[in-house]
Amino acid sequence: MAKGLTTRQEAILAFVSEYTAEKGYPPSIREIGTRFSIGSLRGVTVHLDALEKKGYIDRANTPRSITIKHPHFQPPSAHVVNLPLLGNIAAGIPILAQEHVEDMIPVPAQMVRNIRDAYLLRVRGDSMSGEGINPRDLVVVKPQQTASHGDLVAVLIGDEATVKRIHYSGSAVTLMPSNPAYDPIPIQQEDAKILGRIIGLLRDYDNMAF
User: Fold this and answer.
1) Alpha-carbon 53 to chain mean position
2) Are residues 95 and 12 in the same domain?
3) pLDDT at position 143 over 90
4) Strand partners, 35
5) Tens of pLDDT along 161-175?
6) Overall number of domains in the chain
7) Cα Rg for the chain, rounded, in angstroms?
């Protein structure tokens, strides 16, 4: 991460840099807001003001006047993509709706490959610790509404997403933890929704919960 920047500020700075390099001019505030699911122009300018204050950009009083100025900033390579980190998910609201997006996190492009609309969820609890999935880890989710027996999936139960192995036995569906301290969770298919299959994991060792 660039020194002194939040994850969101660095992602916006990288977007401005890459957009400018590709098109020859910087993105508008509205384009930045659309890219990062920021609902108001003011929400974007708060981040741009912070980047300017920290010496990473210069701005003038025109919609597209943003100049990268920090000599040590190097934008992420083409091998990195920014994925939305989703917060609380409510049934009936589109998964990538603006109100769910907490942040944009850079991840290796190879982890996502050509998967459309992949996103991140933060793991809560230690029910999957037997598979090395710890509290506060970020899991990469490939959106899909079905899963095969034994798949590692994100499932929405009520308004909470959980990560488990899914097991089928006839018409019965069970979510299996990998920590023996937790019991399997039998579910009715009409009471739960498969959000997607887990295809990757990210861990920040500075912020691990013990």
Assistant:
1) 26
2) no
3) yes
4) none
5) 899 999 999 888 999
6) 2
7) 20
Which tokens is 203 given? Answer: 């861990």
- Which CATH number do you get for residue 155? 2.10.109.10
φ and ψ of 55, to 5 deg = 85, 15
**Is-above-0.70 flag for pTM?**
no
Spatial separation of the C-alpha atoms in residues 88 and 101, rounded to whole Å: 9
Catalytic (active-site) positions: 127, 164
Query: For the CA atoms of 112, 76, 52, 47, what is the dihedral angle to 10 degrees?
Result: 0
Residue 26 lies in a domain: yes
Residues 99 and 174 in one domain: yes
Amino acid at 200: G
Q: At what angle do helices 7-23 and 41-53 cross, to 10 degrees?
A: 90
Same domain, 90 and 166: yes
Task: Report, as an integer, the average pLDDT of 107-130.
Answer: 87
In a domain, 76, yes or no: no
d(CA 89, CA 104): 16
Range of the domain at 42: 7-68
